[in-house]
Task: inverse folding
């Protein structure tokens, strides 16, 4: 087929380990985006976050280009290649504990202008520093830090495709609410070396759910169908509303009590310091008096 001939021609003498640039001084621009599919587990004791993610990596291979309008190539605008057949950016997760590939065979899409799109999917467990001070009304911020393992910014120029993760297909977690998943491109410069080192860090913010269900109920159909709701259903809604209000009051009481505890602790520490200070002053004055008497 024309596609087979084109693939054979493009991969002839292609070096998988070499960066896909014609000039060695040129950096490979790699765009990174992340789709958060779901959060599976937040392990407070282990300090870890487990979730399902799709990465969206895009870059250009200057050696893999062709004329898509050439009749000889059958006007093929893109082809599919195995990931083993071409150079891949070595983007790793710096705070990763474990990673599981969700696909047994991975492919990339290469367009006639040399642009490559690779969307690997992973189950990732990453480290997360937990703060349970306000438990059970706590919020957690877990980081996911991506970067090249062997290339500096002059060799691989990492770019952020969007300011946050794509959560359009996110599946709601029963124990945690997703607040945000924003990303930031960071540039680190070390004293030893002139070249920059780049990373993209996403901050996944979660809020613990204090009730198993929310108070909002979705209704579909006409007004007549709404009137058909049973008394039992209405009572259930009222109970959920009361539970939610009760949880809100508990949260406010908890925060107020925590504030009082901190104030009492602070005042106690200040009082102890003042007492200690007065004792030291008295002792010092006594020593001064004795020295003056001797003189």
Result:
């Amino acid at each position: 087929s024309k596609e087979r001939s084109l693939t054979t021609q493009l991969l002839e003498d292609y070096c998988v380990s070499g960066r896909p640039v014609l000039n060695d001084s040129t950096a490979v621009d790699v765009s990174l985006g992340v789709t958060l599919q779901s959060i599976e587990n937040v392990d407070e004791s282990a300090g870890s976050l487990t979730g399902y993610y799709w990465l969206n990596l895009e870059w250009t291979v200057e050696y893999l280009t062709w004329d898509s309008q050439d009749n000889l190539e059958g006007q093929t605008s893109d082809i599919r290649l195995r990931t083993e057949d071409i150079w891949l950016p070595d983007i790793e997760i710096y705070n990763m504990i474990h990673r599981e590939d969700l696909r047994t065979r991975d492919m990339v899409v290469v367009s006639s202008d040399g642009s490559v799109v690779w969307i690997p999917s992973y189950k990732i467990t990453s480290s997360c520093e937990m703060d349970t001070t306000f438990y059970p009304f706590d919020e957690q911020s877990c980081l996911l830090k991506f970067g090249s393992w062997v290339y500096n910014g002059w060799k691989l120029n990492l770019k952020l495709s969007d300011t946050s993760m794509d959560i359009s297909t996110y599946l709601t977690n029963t124990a945690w609410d997703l607040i945000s998943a924003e990303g930031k491109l960071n540039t680190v410069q070390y004293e030893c070396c002139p070249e920059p080192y780049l990373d993209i860090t996403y901050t996944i913010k979660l809020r613990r759910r204090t009730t198993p269900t929310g108070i909002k109920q979705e209704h579909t159909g006409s007004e007549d169908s709404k009137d058909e709701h049973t008394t039992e259903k209405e009572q259930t809604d009222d109970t959920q509303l009361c539970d939610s209000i009760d949880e809100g009051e508990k949260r406010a009481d908890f925060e107020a009590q925590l504030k009082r505890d901190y104030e009492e602790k602070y005042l106690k520490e200040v009082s102890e310091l003042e007492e200690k200070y007065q004792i030291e002053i008295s002792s010092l004055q006594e020593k001064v008096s004795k020295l003056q008497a001797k003189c």
Observations:
- The chain is about 25% helix and 35% strand.
- Residues 213-223 have pLDDT under 50 and may be disordered.
